[in-house]
Structures are given as C-alpha cells and as structure tokens.
Amino acid sequence: MTGAKELSANYWDNRYKEEQTGWDIGYHNPIHTDYIEKNYPKDAYILEPGAGSAYEVEYLWKKGYKNVYACDYALEVKERFLKRVPDFPPEQYISGDFFAMEQQFDVVLEQTFFCAIDPVLRAQYVEHMHTILKPNGRIYGVLFEMDKPEGPPFGGNKKEYSRLFSGKFEISTMKQSTESIPQRMGSELIVELIKKL
C-alpha cells in the first residue's frame, strides 16, 4: 500500500507526466454535470477536488457557472487545463492540499478523489468536507464499491461509507450506479450527502 505521505504532489505529477492516468476518462462525466445543471443556479459555488484534467469544471465553466473551482496536488494538470481553457481564472484552479482549503462551497463533486487518498485520511475527509460546505451543502458523485485495500485507487463498500459519513451528513442517496462508464459499471455507488448542521 502506498503510504499517506507518499501520495504527494510529486507522486501525482509523475503519474500525469508518465500518462499513468487510468482514472482520466477524457471527457466530462454526465453523472456530475447533469446533477449540477438540474439542481444549481449559475452562481453556485462548486468544487471538484482531486480534479486532475477537470473536464467537469471545464464543461460547467463553458455553461456559465462562474464560481466553479478545481483543486489538485499536481502542478502539471493545472498547466494543461489552463492551456485547454485559456479564459478560466487561474486562481480558481487551486494547486495544493484539499485539506488546507478554507473557502466554502454549495456542492463538492466527488469523482475519483476519495479513492485516491490513503484510507487513514477518510475520517479527516469527512470532517473537512463538513467544514468547507455551506449550510445545506452537499457532496455529490460516485464512490467505488469494491474490495481493494491496495491502492490507489482504494476500495470500500456501502456499509463502510454509511458508517463513515452518517455522523456529519444525511445520506440522501447511496445506491448502485446505473450511469457509470462501461469499465466501471457495477463498481460505483451514486452518493448525495447533505451536510448536517
């Protein structure tokens, strides 16, 4: 297992430089973008942590969502993103540690961030999500449902996630995804988690 300290900016930068990016599907995931377009106004504050190529951020930005943010450890991906989306405000693609973020958001899009961090940080993930979400804020996206203790990506299951999140979040949705990309079909849960006050 890769240790928490080893999952550093250099680690992720090198994964991109070496094109070892199996999580990068090459386009925005409609699971996330459809949800935002159906449920949030254009002035909503949206974050995608561990955003990488940030196709969802690009899509939403071009659709008029002006308060959409990306965050990633890897410097390489921000450079690539800004070349691809030259009118995107550079300060809204945050190169740094998600756990150091202080800004608040209406919704956080979970794609492949939770499964990329060391499982010892999962309780801290829940705490920090609760901190950076506004009242009634939500986590929305997908979590892996598979037995995979070695990673990244690290696996997990519905029972584990329910126990992990239920103290700080109301579990509005946690169900098998029928909208996953073909190579992930059957191994993802759709989740909508609402911040408890």
Describe this structure in words.
The chain is globular and about 40 Å long. With about 200 residues, the protein is α/β, with parallel strands linked by helices. It has a seven-stranded mixed β-sheet with strand order 3-2-1-4-5-7-6, sandwiched between helices. Helices cover about 30% and strands about 25% of the residues. It has helices at about 10-15, 30-40, 55-60, 75-85, 120-130, 160-165, and strands at about 45-50, 70, 95, 105-110, 135-145, 170-175, 190-195. It has a single domain (about 5-195), classed as Vaccinia Virus protein VP39 (Rossmann fold, 3-Layer(aba) Sandwich), CATH 3.40.50. Strand 1, helix 3 and strand 2 (about 70) form a beta-alpha-beta unit.
| Structural domain tally | 1
State the strand order across the main sheet.
3-2-1-4-5-7-6
> What structural class is derived from the secondary structure elements?
alpha/beta
Mean pLDDT: 86
Shape: globular
Number of strands: 7
Topology as H/E string? Answer: HHEHEHEEHEHEE
Q: Would you identify the CATH H-level superfamily? A: Vaccinia Virus protein VP39
